[in-house]
Description:
The protein is α/β, with parallel strands linked by helices. The chain has helices at 2-12, 85-99, 123-127, 139-151, 170-177, 180-183, 213-216, 230-242, 291-304, 322-332, 347-359, 381-387, 391-401, and strands at residues 31-35, 42-48, 51-57, 80-84, 103-107, 132-134, 155-159, 193-198, 223-226, 247-252, 259-263, 275-278, 283-287, 309-313, 316-318, 335-342, 368-372. It comes from Medicago truncatula.
Amino acid sequence: MATLFQALGAALTPFSPSTSFQSKERKCSSIFVVRSSDAKVNQVVLKSGGATRKAGQLLIPNAVATQGSSSVASAASKPGHELLLFEALREGLEEEMERDPCVCVMGEDVGHYGGSYKVTRNLAEKFGDLRVLDTPIAENAFTGMGIGAAMTGLRPIIEGMNMGFLLLAFNQISNNCGMLHYTSGGQFKIPVVIRGPGGVGRQLGAEHSQRLESYFQSIPGIQMVACSTPYNAKGLMKAAIRSDNPVILFEHVLLYNLKERIPDEEYVLSLEEAEMVRPGEHVTILTYSRMRYHVMQAAKTLVNKGYDPEVIDIRSLKPFDLHTIGNSIKKTHRVLIVEECMRTGGIGASLTAAITENFHDYLDAPIICLSSQDVPTPYAGTLEEWTVVQPAQIVTAVEQLCQ
């Protein structure tokens, strides 16, 4: 394993051994990291020609984050090409591997097999076996190897064949990935992306239907994002790879074959911004991942009933985009949270606490949170549906809120 690690490092040209590990700014062709003088706020600055713009800011506790410039224009208004979500992930990954030789991929069957959901298909042939590294079935080992590679200057993408399997690497993710930048006094950065399929599928059984957002959200030092469309899948993938922070990218197993037209030109999304899916006036519905589509299905019924819901895909699960969320609440004064995560200790619970802490005075009704039931996901299809929020429940909740 040591020999393999040395070969991987040599092939990808990490930092020179003589290079000090003191904090330095890593400059790329289109992105670099700026640290504030008080070392408390990191800003990602995107460069386009001679101009610069802020793509987002870390949230300030007990306050609303300052809004960055507007996000990239909707793909629907521009010519582009159609991709399935898993193809959009691969396109973003391939572009970053071409741009930066330090980017590499590791995981089970990610090489010549192309990944269990084909996100890495054909990348081994293009970039070689050392940059697209097939690993043994040992999540703890290859996750640790990826974190170690990140410490030397590489930018690994660690794929879990199923996100539930990454619980075997929980020690590496929590005690190493999230803490090493802090415990080393800033001498090491951990620019690693951890990604893979998760969520409740169609009769995949309990062990393959886990929602791990609640497991990882309490780990200090880790960012979490969830993609829901091919457009934001590619943009978030590229942003996660370029980030100097460890990022967990959640992909839903039932969204991989979702098709959308995305721009031909390059774009990178912010890791800390929510997406306004549908403006409205009567109630703010906060959701992410697959539940975005259950919410939009319910929204059609709600409009026919005379309601005007505002739908926000929060995308950033940690930290929350309290600017976008707060502005919506100040307008609608009612909040419904819809998630596939568990109710106890889930994303909805954390979001409820953040909203109550920051925007309680703007609420005209108690926050309602619709979550999956706190049971292992059943195998039987009918029972599986009962554990996950359905569109009819969303309609009923909005009617209750707006009474």
